[in-house]
């Protein structure tokens, strides 16, 4: 069965084994020798845990050094049971759950066999007790029962009685002798009192095989066609159920860390931060009205107007070429609305034969926002009226919209260099009603004014009026309403660059954008910090859980789980973590009014990263170092 040829194992300058050759055919086999003589080293080679040595070791003719990962997993799952000094049990699990660990890789029903083993090893009353609460002898029985669950051909035991009292040691010894009647048992021991009956004994002295008593006991092939299964989803779910029950604390901390990380990242990536930093801007709009967002494009204006220095000398008429700008900006996606300015005086509107004089304020146009209907269609004779005028006419917004009204007034023609007042008139359909109020803050009080002469005709009406007034200048004054303060400044700079001075509250908007940027940066830094810390916390918790479960992963490996099987197990566990943290993230997203998909996507991302981290840890676990297999660990 085992054939070892000229095995030499060197640690540093010291040889733990020197030119050891032996063969094990079946039955009971003892490897004995003083402490440090190389027993455990030999046992690790026999069990294919250590493949770094000189010489060759064969199991049923197969060179143990040449085993692939899959072959090794099959060997551990079906043929080789290994009982180590530290018992290699998963402390959080019960006796029953520990014994069942190898059974998840098999297709046969484990329950009958489990009951039989529990009875045989007299541990049926302990079945639902956590193994951490058991005595050394009880743990050893559980460890042997678990290995027998594989129905192995060979059972290898490292100092199985080392930590036991004499009576329990004898019982365990007898148990192993009974097992050796059916299978090959290899026991490493100091305790020569265990050696009884028909057996082979190999004695090591300072790494050299000094004595050898071989009793030829041919090995009985136990179900040699046994095949290892991959861990099925059903088994992985059952194992995850057990893990959740027994290691709820670890999994819960993972879920919490994942949820916090995902929620903080979601808050960071969502528009929530910019939403909160927009608050100052919204407050300004509420106080002063939306008209602070207007950019007036005019073909002529008085310089120094509004500066407080309007002395006759300082004030000058400035003319600028605004032709083509209306066409340029009317389809611009940054522009919320374009409103035409009607520079008319002495306006009268006629409704049902009754004339209403429109009072001139000299401050028009003021456009705050649309409150009913829509902005006039530039290709039609449509007009937007101020709400204050509609009220003056005794109508509701709904009543006035769609009505066709007659308008009269005058336009000043400056084409000759002198102002010539020209009478104009037109008929227009009312397309909408606008709020034309604006607020002014005075000693902490906000006063609101409304303009009834802020009418907004379509381009078609403007063309008509200018034709009636005989104006040659084709440029019409209009208002650009950008959709955000950032776009306001962008368009402003664009116009200035093109040599056109737009009129508006540029400095105020600049301050707002500056403030918003600073608030955003500040909030962004803190949320990024929280998010990074949360991701780090999630990864650390996951790393910690992975490291804490190293022993468990090593036990799985020695129970025959391939790396893929452990990855399937982790995938199922992290799917659970994702579902739970995803659910909490969805609730958090709903409460925080951030997009649900973002919380879900980030929970998924964090879970996938944690899964990758755990899979990496489990695949790097080496049972040799993760488990105590002998004096040096
Ligand atoms: N990982 C290691 N690194 C360095 N030296 C080691 C290592 N493992 C074992 N050795 C050395 O190899 C020699 C044999 O050790 P081994 O553990 O095989 O002896 P042993 O007979 O099992 O001893 P014990 O009965 O005390 O467990 C010892 O000198 C030991 O110090």
UniProtKB/TrEMBL annotation:
InterPro entries, sorted: AAA+_ATPase, ABC_transporter-like_ATP-bd, ABC_transporter-like_CS, ABC_transpr_LolD-like, MacB-like_ATP-bd, P-loop_NTPase
Sorted UniProt keywords: ATP-binding, Lipoprotein, Membrane, Nucleotide-binding, Transmembrane, Transmembrane helix, Transport
Residues in ABC transporter domain copies: 2-231
UniProt-recorded Gene Ontology molecular function terms: ATP binding; ATP hydrolysis activity; transmembrane transporter activity
Protein name in the entry: ABC-type lipoprotein export system ATPase subunit
Transmembrane segments: 525-545, 566-591, 597-621
Residues making up the signal peptide according to the UniProt record: none
Record-level GO cellular component terms: plasma membrane
């Amino acid at each position: 069965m085992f054939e070892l040829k000229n095995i030499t194992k060197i640690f540093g300058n010291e040889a733990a084994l020197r030119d050891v050759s032996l063969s094990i055919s079946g039955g009971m086999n003892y490897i004995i020798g003083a402490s440090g003589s190389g027993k455990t080293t030999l046992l690790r080679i026999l069990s294919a845990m250590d493949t770094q040595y000189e010489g060759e070791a064969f199991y049923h003719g197969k060179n143990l050094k040449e085993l692939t990962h899959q072959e090794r997993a099959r060997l551990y799952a079906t043929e080789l049971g290994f009982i180590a000094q530290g018992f290699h049990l998963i402390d959080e699990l019960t006796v029953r759950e520990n014994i069942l660990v190898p059974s998840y890789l098999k297709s046969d029903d484990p329950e009958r066999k489990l009951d039989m083993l529990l009875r045989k090893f007299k541990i049926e009353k302990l079945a639902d007790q956590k193994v951490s609460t058991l005595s050394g002898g009880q743990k050893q029985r559980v460890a042997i029962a678990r290995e027998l669950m594989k129905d192995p051909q060979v059972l290898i035991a490292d100092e199985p009685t080392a930590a036991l009292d004499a009576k329990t040691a004898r019982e365990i010894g007898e148990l192993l002798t009974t097992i050796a009647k059916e299978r090959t048992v290899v026991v490493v021991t100091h305790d020569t009192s265990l050696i009884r009956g028909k057996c082979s004994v190999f004695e090591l002295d300072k790494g050299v095989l000094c004595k050898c008593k071989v009793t030829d006991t041919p090995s009985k092939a136990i179900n040699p066609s046994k095949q290892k299964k991959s861990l099925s989803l059903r088994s992985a779910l059952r194992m995850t159920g057990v893990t959740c029950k027994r290691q709820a604390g670890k999994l819960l901390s993972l879920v919490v860390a994942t949820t916090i990380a995902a929620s903080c990242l979601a808050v960071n990536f969502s528009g929530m931060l910019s939403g909160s930093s927009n608050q100052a801007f919204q407050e300004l709009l509420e106080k002063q009205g939306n008209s602070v967002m207007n950019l007036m494009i005019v073909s002529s204006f008085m310089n120094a107007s509004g500066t407080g220095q309007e002395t006759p000398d300082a004030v000058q008429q400035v003319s600028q070429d605004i032709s083509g700008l209306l066409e340029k900006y009317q389809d611009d996606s940054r522009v919320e609305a374009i409103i035409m300015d009607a520079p008319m005086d002495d306006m009268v509107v006629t409704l049902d034969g009754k004339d209403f004089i429109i009072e001139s304020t000299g401050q028009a146009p003021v456009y705050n926002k649309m409150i009913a209907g829509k902005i006039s269609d530039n290709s039609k004779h449509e007009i937007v009226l101020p709400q204050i005028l509609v009220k003056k006419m005794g109508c509701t917004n709904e009543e006035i919209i769609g009505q066709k009204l007659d308008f009269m007034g005058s336009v000043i023609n400056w084409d000759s260099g002198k102002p010539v007042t020209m009478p104009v008139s037109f008929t227009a359909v009312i397309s909408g009603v606008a709020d034309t109020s604006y607020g002014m803050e005075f000693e902490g009080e906000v006063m609101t004014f409304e303009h009834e002469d802020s009418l907004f005709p379509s381009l078609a009406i403007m063309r008509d009026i200018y034709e009636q007034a005989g104006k040659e200048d084709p440029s019409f004054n209009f208002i650009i309403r950008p959709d955000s303060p950032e776009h306001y400044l962008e368009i402003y700079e664009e116009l200035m660059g093109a040599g056109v001075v737009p009129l508006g509250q540029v400095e105020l908007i600049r301050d707002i954008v500056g403030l918003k940027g600073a608030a955003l940066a500040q909030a962004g830094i803190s949320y990024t910090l929280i998010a990074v810390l949360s991701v780090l916390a999630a990864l650390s918790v996951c790393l910690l859980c992975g490291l804490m479960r190293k022993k468990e992963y090593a036990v799985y490996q020695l129970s025959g789980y391939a790396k893929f099987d452990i990855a399937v197990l982790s995938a199922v566990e992290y799917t659970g973590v994702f579902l739970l943290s995803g659910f909490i993230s969805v609730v958090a997203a709903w409460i925080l009014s951030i997009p649900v998909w973002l919380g879900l996507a980030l929970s998924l991302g964090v879970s996938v990263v944690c899964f990758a981290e755990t899979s990496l840890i489990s695949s790097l676990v080496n049972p040799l170092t993760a488990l105590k297999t002998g004096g040096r660990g």
